[in-house]
Amino acid sequence: MRQFRDGDVPDQTGRTAVVTGATGGLGLRVSEVLAAHGARVLLGSRNPDRGAKALQAVAAAATGAAPELVALDLASLDSVRAAAARVRALTGDRLDLLVNNAGVMAPPLTLTVDGFESQWATNVLGPAVLSWLLLPAIEAVPGSRVVFVSSTAHSSARFDESLLRADVRGDNYRGFEIYERTKLADLLLSHDLESYFLRTGSASLSVAAHPGFTSTGIVRAGFAGLPVVLRPIANWGGSALGQPVAIGALPILYAATAAEVAGDDYFGPRGLGGLRGYPARAKRSRESLNDDLGRTLVRVIEELTGVVSGT
Q: Which residue among 173, 179, 196, 254 is the active-site one?
């Protein structure tokens, strides 16, 4: 695979993209690059102040239509429903790209307003519901894409329906283990959505990417779950060894825009065990392609959220 850089992003003029977690880190970088190549970017933002600053940054980079903020808290189903409705209204039910980037990693145990463990809510339930509610707008555009952002951490994860339900309740909470399972779930959702596109003859694609070990806020926040004596070492290591956000965002941008991408593809950094470097095809676990587990995941999410996938 060629060495893909920001300048290799194809012209995005006339395309509309939704990026979640767009107020900082990878989401902000992806939004800026898409806008710089002509896309109209709708920035999913939970925090109004951070959203306003991000909007200024993306507007400064934009060469096409002005970016817009969409209030979105993935940990609240009401917020997800309202955001999906707003996106459909703003786009006239024509959406070219959805980047499910937002996420949290190993925070202290927290239950959301809907009673769900926060990682499952933010990393999986919210993105699933947002994607499903936006399907009419996505499928209306030939060549549209949905990108799920996963992690190398997915490779050691396993779960069944019983463990999934326990996780969502916050039972026997172990932050990093749950993070790993949510990242496996993101790959399963991406695979299930691509299977749906194939069954229905849709011209849309569902793909996935991961940023490797990139120095972002989610990594630093995740270190808060470590024992106190280890946090300074972890923070130093994250800063010293983590690659810049501009490089970590490239696999996501490749998955979102490169012409040679096919459905169910998965991309990440090419070097050091998938932790650093320019984009390449990433290794994924056999579990992440398990159709039965994917359908179980979808069924449970439908039951928990009251939103039918349509897939």
A: 179
